[in-house]
Amino acid sequence: MSQYLYSGKASLFSATALSLVLLCVPEVAAQVALEEITVTARKREESLKDIPLSITALTSQDIANRGVSELRDIIDLTPGLSISEFGAGQLNFPVIRGLTNLTGGAFAENNVSVFYNGVYLANSNMVDVTFLDLERVEVVKGPVSALYGRNAYSGVINYVTKRPSDEFEGTLKLEGGNHDRYGIQGSVSGPIVDGKLGVRLSGRFDSFGGTREDAISGVDFEGYEKKAIQAAFEIDPTESVNILATLYYSNDDYDQPLRVLTTGNCGAPAGAFQTTLCGKVPDFSDSDGTPRSGDPDFELFGNKRELFMATGNVSIDMGPVSLTSVTSYMDGSEGQRIDRDGTGVGRAYPLIGGPTPTINLSTYGLSDADDDAFSQELRLSSNEDENVRWSFGGFYSRFNRLGGFTIVVDNGDVPAGAIAIVPFPIGQGDPTNPPFFQDARLKDRELSGFGLVDFDVTEQFTVSAEARWTDQKKFQNQIGSFLRFPSDADGPDGIEGSWDFWSFRFTADYDVTDQTKLYTSAAKGNKAGGFNSLVVGAADLQYDPEVNWTYEAGIKTNFLDGRLGLDAAVFYSDLSSLQLLGFAGVNSAIRNAGSAKAYGFESSVAAIVADGVTFGIGLAYSNPSFKDGAFVNGGTDVAKCANIPACADRIVVDSNGNTGLNLSGYSLPRQSDWQGTLTVDIVQPLTEDWDWTLRGNYRYESKQYTVSPPTNVAYVGSKHRANLRAGVESDRYSVTAYVDNVFNDDSAVNTGIILDPSNFTSPIAVTYDDKRTFGIEARVNF
Questions:
Q1: Taking the CB of the first residue and of the last residue of the chain, which one, N or C, has fewer CB atoms within 10 A?
Q2: d(Cα 120, Cα 124) in Å, to the nearest integer?
Q3: In which element (H, E) is residue 231 found?
């Protein structure tokens, strides 16, 4: 267990565990130390303990030991990181320090930049990319837009794959478990021409049936089939030139997301149909416990996606300076076919001219998107041995997306000659327009220049400055309809807009001793602006970038000859030009509507408490809240709040005459104030060649307020997730049994609303995590 900078809640379990660590460490007999890790968070190789940033890094050994195979596994092991997700690989928005995305939607910009070998993953349906042969995962907390650019607003997640090895090596892993889980993963690596050309090839196949099934149709939920291949080529034509090229392809097929419709208990006058939920969102065991889907004859799936990525990294050592070129290309596509009414039998619509007064029809959501992107970075850097170190460069990227979304009513059961009203007339085989559709063509071009300067004032004291200027241009052309009312707000030729802005980071760090570093920083991050679609009024077509200024101070230190490590940081974030989702007429629109603040801390302890026993604890707290002036336009949120005493007094009229909600003082939704993790690794000898192992991790997250309405009236409960792994291993072989979600936690993950065309209501859809799963892995290294 290499780098355990984990977050957590200042609760009894963590305080007790920390006391045990501090008591046990002096008893260690073996003179061993926590592993030192090298990271590239500032685009150069540095020791993790020396870099003045709050970072969690998982090494390839951590990834193997913990069975890390998806983004959720990283979150379980990372302080200050959570996720707002909607299941089946859809709408995954990583959240760092509680700074959650407030807009949602497949085309929304992330608050956290996610990179795979330098490829920026812009689509929220693809950030949970299928992992393959990872060398390291780095999670950087706090704004780092000055170095990473686009949307490194509150942090970065960087997936780094393994390079070709100098000697021939390989690995093969087989896995099987309950709920029809099975998989195979392997890699081979070695030199083709010694010292000149190395190649690494890897592949993965995983299948999982999902832990829940539709009680009516038999359709599975949350299962998947994932396939991925990867190749890396390293070329050293001369001693001063290094070329690393990687190719990646994945094809993932997810079942439908698990979404259970929950009855509202507020939001309407007494005696009327309640459309909103107040209080705690039911855990799965407290709901009706019956997820349902539509007609199995209508092909439904959660997310089918393909992704191809290619990167080329060329480094040229020119003595006092080095030149680096990073080129990337991405081509991705994804599609969804999802049941929307969640009944399994459809909803009742009036039927005219048929044998019955009503007919049950099912409603489905269909979406598709095709993305392609290209980027090029050039960077000139000084020698790292100098007292003044610098790096300057330029960056260009383009991103294109063609996508659409449609709500359809399955009219196959409408009798011939009859008409169903849904809320417009539709007959069997009727080709009339669907109740809602949206087609979009988006283009994004970014051009930026950046620089970094480090200055060693003394041998112990260093100051640094980072800056990036960005010129961003976007184009959008969308058409659509809402209940058959056409909308083409950006016109037949589309709309184009541009923004330019600066990002900064200023840092000072002081080495108190060789083992203790203090640092402080001020950083400005930006999240891209954009355009609304299907809105009423030209004033709502465009919104500006969101800004985050974060001020941070931290300490990194080791004790007891490196057997005990402590990392801690405190921060304050000031968010302005907040992008909030409100209403413009009958449609939703994103506006820059106010500001927010967040303050908190992260602290982590890792310790070798005995020979072969490593223990980790983390604490993280953040409570972001809206500041004065945060205002969301009305629509249905105002109508709901008018009948909810807890937020009725929040209905106000702004200076422009817009009726909406004053959010001042409310917590940001979809984020937990407290997080807690506890980890343990035990490796003990079994025979001369074999060890037995026991590894476990536990994560706690406090409750999260839901979004609609964003007034803290509803929340999902706290989450308790524990994973356990036990097995035997030698230098070449290992066999490991595992149990995930040991306590079978069934708390709600997230909520959303879906339009019901039969009665214009918005049922509440709740997503849930997998039930307890278990299985066994066998691995051989050669």
A1: C
A2: 11
A3: strand 224-238
CB 548 within 8 A of CB 522: no
Nearest to 59 by CA among 45, 42, 79, 38: 38
Q: What is the pLDDT of residues 337-353, one digit of tens each?
A: 888 777 777 888 889 98
Strand segments, DSSP code E, in 117-223 are 119-120, 134-141, 155-161, 169-177, 181-193, 197-208, 212-213, 220-221
Could you give the CA distance from residue 128 to residue 445 in angstroms, rounded to a whole number?
A: 24
* Lowest model confidence (mean pLDDT) among 179-193, 364-378, 445-459, 574-588: 574-588
- CA pair distance 730, 649, nearest whole angstrom: 65
pLDDT per residue as tens digits for the range 13-35: 444 444 444 434 333 334 466 77
CA trace torsion 501, 118, 113, 110 (10° rounding): 90
Tell me the per-residue pLDDT of 67-115, one tens digit each, with 9 for 90 and over: 999 998 999 999 899 988 887 777 788 999 999 888 866 567 888 999 9
DSSP labels for 678-698? EEEEEEEESSSS-EEEEEEEE
> pLDDT confidence of 413, banded at 50, 70, 90?
confident
Distance separating alpha carbons of residues 255 and 222, to the nearest angstrom: 5
Q: Are 241 and 320 in contact (CB under 8 A)?
A: no
Which DSSP string corresponds to 571-602? EEEEEES-EEEEEETTEEEEEE---EEEEEEE
- Of 569, 570, 567, 571, the closest CA to residue 605 belongs to 567
- Burial of 604-642, coded b for 16+ CB within 10 Å and e otherwise, reads bbbbbbbebbbbbbbbbbbebbbbeebbbbbbbbbebbe
CA distance 65 to 729: 11
Mean pLDDT calculated for residue range 648-665: 86
Question: What tokens does 767 get?
Answer: 């997503």
| DSSP H/E element including 12 | helix 12-24
Instruction: Give the angle 576-127-552 at the CA atoms, nearest 5°.
Output: 40
Q: State how far the Cα of 535 lies from the Cα of 419, in Å rounded to an integer.
A: 31
Sequential DSSP letters for 691-726: EEEEEEEEEEE--EE-SSSSSSSEEEPPEEEEEEEE
> For residue 639, how many C-alpha atoms fall within 13 Å in the half-sphere facing its CB?
11
Residue 685 phi, psi (nearest 5): -65, 140
Per DSSP, what are the bridge partners of residue 136? 59, 160
- Mean pLDDT to the nearest integer, 410-417: 84
Taking the C-alpha atoms of residue 310 and residue 161, their distance in angstroms, rounded to an integer, is 12
> Which distant-in-sequence residues (6+ apart) come within 8 Å of 157 by Cβ?
71, 74, 81, 94, 112, 113, 114, 115, 127, 137, 138, 139, 140
Question: Are 134 and 162 within 8 A, CB to CB?
Answer: yes
| Average pLDDT value over all residues in the chain | 87
**Is residue 403 within 8 Å of residue 370, measured between CB atoms?**
yes
Hey, how many other C-beta atoms are within 10 angstroms of the C-beta on 381? 18
**Is the distance from CB of 438 to CB of 533 less than 8 angstroms?**
yes
Instruction: Supply φ then ψ for residue 647, to 5 degrees.
Output: -135, 5
Question: Residue 728 contacts by C-beta under 8 Å, 6 or more apart in sequence?
Answer: 686, 690, 691, 692, 693, 734, 735
DSSP 60: H
Distance CA 130, CA 208 (A): 14
Q: What is the pLDDT of residue 406?
A: 86
Output the six-digit token pair for 647: 């937020």
pLDDT computed for residue 106 by the predictor: 57
pLDDT at 8: 36
What pLDDT does residue 633 have?
79
Q: Which two tokens stand for residue 758?
A: 């039969």
Rg value, the chain, Cα = 27
pLDDT tens readout for residues 187-221: 999 999 999 999 999 999 999 999 988 766 677 78
**Residues 403/106, Cβ–Cβ less than 8 Å:** yes
Residue 548 and residue 712: Cα distance in Å, rounded?
A: 23
N-term to C-term CA, the chain: 22
